[in-house]
Design brief:
336 residues; alpha/beta; 5-stranded mixed beta sheet; 15 helices
């Protein structure tokens, strides 16, 4: 999910017409995908291009990978080989063993320790089995509503540390009669599954911004302990992506009711990564540079905010990749 900026575009409420063009999947980026898609969609919004960033790591990301993840060619090669051997022993788990880039996708958040990566893979797929009502047949074309509601989006740019920025607006934009929290969760899964394809995101990770502006008492009743546990289990144990921080902004006092549902399930590591800012933009900017944020968060980013329906235009063209992602896991039929 990336950008190719042709010219400076001032942020406005109305964006130009969306147009989709296709670029060939080259042999360099093909290993980052599980499907046999031969073309990748690029969404053109005026002079602005939105696309997946499947290219090799930037020099900056390579340095982060070396320093923080122990990633070197030799370490990577040995870890991939060992992880393959470990996975061969998991007879009821169907995975793309011949795809080294897929294996690296799980090795990176585990700092290239094969045994830890194996456990992460098992948790990732076990979570999908446990919540099969969410994951079975999960593709963008079946989940249009959450994106059309425009409460879930990803910034087209990365932050100052190269991280993806996922924004959920669960306050005044959230019409509880029109979109459920399960739909919100499915939308977040679809976004993060796509982000996991990007080498740069695998290394640098992602941050999440929960904008709770306008949260009402009636909305808080939609949150349940069961939902809270699912979200926390997913973020803590089942996402092969480095979730670096969760920022809570514009939250009213009654947000405490919601957070109290999540607290019992939070372990210290994730709890320490949740930061409450309220309307204090200086506090937010200590973690996210204003240069990376739109004006509504006190930022100076000179790019359009890509809304949910515009992201949907991109995601809809990737159904084939999601179907390939869904074809692996526990007790999946292996085609001969």
């Amino acid at each position: 999910m990336g950008k190719n900026k042709k010219s400076e575009i001032e942020e406005t409420g109305d964006l130009p017409e969306v147009k989709i063009v296709y670029v060939p999947v080259t042999k360099e980026i093909a290993p980052n995908m599980l499907s046999e898609m031969t073309q990748l969609p690029t969404v053109q919004i005026g002079d602005y291009n939105l696309h997946l960033e499947l290219e090799d790591l930037s020099p900056e990301a390579k340095e982060i990978a070396r320093k923080e993840l122990r990633e070197t060619p030799d370490v990577s090669r040995e870890a991939v080989s060992t992880l393959k051997d470990l996975l061969k022993e998991e007879k009821d788990l169907h995975v793309p063993l011949d795809n080294d880039q897929w294996l690296i996708r799980f090795l990176r958040p585990c700092k290239f320790y094969p045994e830890s990566a194996l456990e992460l893979i098992k948790r990732y797929y076990s979570f999908k089995v446990k919540h099969s009502d969410i994951y079975n047949g999960l593709v963008p074309s079946k989940e249009k509503n959450i994106f059309e509601q425009n409460i879930l989006t990803v910034q087209p740019n990365r932050d100052q540390l190269g991280r993806r920025i996922l924004i959920l607006e669960l306050g005044k934009k959230w019409k509880t009669s029109e979109v459920t929290l399960d739909e919100v969760f499915k939308g977040a899964v679809l976004f993060l599954e796509l982000a996991m394809l990007e080498p740069e995101t695998q290394v640098c990770g992602a941050v999440v911004v929960f904008d709770m502006d306008g949260l009402s008492l009636s909305q808080t009743t939609k949150f349940t302990p069961m939902f809270a546990k699912r979200i926390v289990d997913w973020l803590q144990d089942s996402v092969p992506l480095r979730i670096k921080n969760i920022h809570i902004v514009n939250q009213p006092y009654i947000f405490k009711i919601v957070f109290n549902l999540f607290k019992p399930f939070l372990r210290e590591k994730l709890r320490n990564r949740i930061i409450f800012h309220g309307t204090d933009r200086k506090s937010l900017h200590q973690h996210l540079s204003p240069k990376c944020l739109p004006e509504c968060y006190g930022g100076s980013l000179n790019l359009p905010r890509i809304n949910g329906p515009q992201w949907l235009e991109l995601l809809l063209q990737c159904d084939q990749e999601y179907e390939a992602i869904n074809s692996y896991g526990y007790n999946k039929k292996v085609e001969k």
